[in-house]
Amino acid sequence: MDFDTSVHEHFMREALEQARCAADCGEVPVGAVVVKDGQVIGRGHNRPLSAQDPTAHAEVLALREAARTLGNYRLDGCTLYVTLEPCTMCSGAMLHARVDAVVYGAPEPRTGAAGSVLDVFGYAAINHQTRVLRGVLAAQCSALMAEFFQLRRLEKKAQQPHPLRDWALRNADEAFAGLPAWPWQPQWRSDLPALQGLRLAVVDEGPEDAALTWLCLHGSPGWGYGFRHLLPDLLAAGHRVVVPDLPGFGRSDQPKKDKRHSAPWHLQIIAELIEALNLRRLVLVGQGDGGRLGLAAAQALPERFAGAWLIDTWPLNTQPQQRQQWFEQAARKPGWDVASAMAELDGSSNAEEACAWNAPFAQPGHRAALKAWPRLQTELAAPPADLLQQWAQADRLWLQPAVTQQPVSAAQWQAAWLQAVPQLAAQTRVWRQTQPGAPVPAAQQGGGAAAVEYFAP
Ligand SMILES: [Zn+2]
């Protein structure tokens, strides 16, 4: 090459100028100029995205312009300056154009065809020889690329504030679109320390300074949807309603391994959520084992709770065989149909609601929580007898059996509660009757309105 270093650097700066144009357009910042007799006769910057053209590399565009300037497809006596080591296509194009020399800045270790991955210019058998000069203003050329990709990563991160952990799975939003009686969009949060980056779905409706906040906690295999008929009544009373989906259920992320699930972990997440949202004057609405987890949270944070309404919550760690079998089937059978199992409990079934129950578990591998649940049930803390008695005496406790007599009868269920908390024997007002229709009584049955009246501060 006949030019000295300062001449090469001068033209590389022109190529860098082109590269910045590419970056401004959101293209990978690569720029090129073609020089003949000390004059720039062609310029180009990367634009495959905007041109929708896989061949629209900076070098190709600069070669085309140079050929037009010269009125000749041969570019004898020309030097091409490019900020990044050319790919095979561009190197080939330069050979076809009979470019004298190529000068590049930064090496491209993944696709570079001028020495890095392969060396298209190094074959003596190819009849035209193009000389190669490497590393001119390499630091500046590399910095421009690094800056561009860093910015793009930050933008991507800003668009996706809750990245999916590699140990977790996520259901598509579309699977939960348009469910009947469920217009509520969750707020997503992954900032609670116990979540370790998992995305948690939390429906949070109503005013922050409400007289009461209803914390609705589902059990397995349900999710917040089970409370759909309650929300309108509670919100109509001016109250706040907070409905999280526990990890592994509903719209929250699901750990791939059942070992991730434990009762203390779920409890920690619930407690951290209560503190993060600064929830006070809480009434726990617990369905199934969600009631047990909620009671453990109330025991840990008693000053934040005003009472509880527990529906189909089994109070003992030993359970009747039918109940145990029900959860073991859910755990063991990968094809266990959640919707028809829920319909049995519910006493009703409807196709749209079946979609809601099956949606969280529709994908293969999305059942770690179901698998973990029988073990998790043995880890639940005993119900806090003193707290329950205190609530019962203040008319702040409702205990309600399952809608149907499945998998345990109402009599079995009540006997279990009296075994767990004998003091409740004297509290006749805590026992609620259930009407068929939904795991949690429907609005039209007055469940929500009656609760508002009973628990009113
Ligand atoms: Zn190329």
TrEMBL record:
List the SUPFAM superfamilies hit by this protein, alphabetically.
Answer: alpha/beta-Hydrolases, Cytidine deaminase-like
For this UniProt entry, which segments traverse the membrane? Answer: none
The record's remark on the cofactor is:
Binds 1 zinc ion per subunit.
**Binding-site residues for Zn(2+), renumbered to this chain:** 57, 87, 90
PROSITE patterns cross-referenced by the UniProt entry? CYT_DCMP_DEAMINASES_1, CYT_DCMP_DEAMINASES_2
**Which cofactors are reported in the record for this sequence?**
Zn(2+)
Enzyme Commission code: 3.5.4.33
Q: What class of enzyme is it?
A: hydrolase
Q: Does the keyword Hydrolase apply?
A: yes
A GO term, aspect molecular function: zinc ion binding
| Catalysed reaction equations from the record | adenosine(34) in tRNA + H2O + H(+) = inosine(34) in tRNA + NH4(+)
Q: Name one Pfam family in it.
A: Abhydrolase_1
Q: Which residues form the CMP/dCMP-type deaminase domain?
A: 6-118
- The residues responsible for catalysis, as annotated, are 59
Keyword Zinc attached: yes
The record's PANTHER family line, in alphabetical order, gives: CYTOSINE DEAMINASE FAMILY MEMBER (PTHR11079), TRNA-SPECIFIC ADENOSINE DEAMINASE (PTHR11079:SF202)
Q: How does this protein assemble?
A: Homodimer.
What the entry lists under NCBIfam families is as follows: PRK10860.1 (NF008113)
Name the family the entry cites. Answer: Belongs to the cytidine and deoxycytidylate deaminase family. ADAT2 subfamily.
Q: What does this protein do?
A: Catalyzes the deamination of adenosine to inosine at the wobble position 34 of tRNA(Arg2).
Question: Could you tell me which HAMAP family the record lists for this protein?
Answer: tRNA_aden_deaminase (MF_00972)
**Name of the protein:** tRNA-specific adenosine deaminase
Lineage per the UniProt record: Bacteria, Pseudomonadati, Pseudomonadota, Betaproteobacteria, Burkholderiales
* Gene name of the record: tadA_1
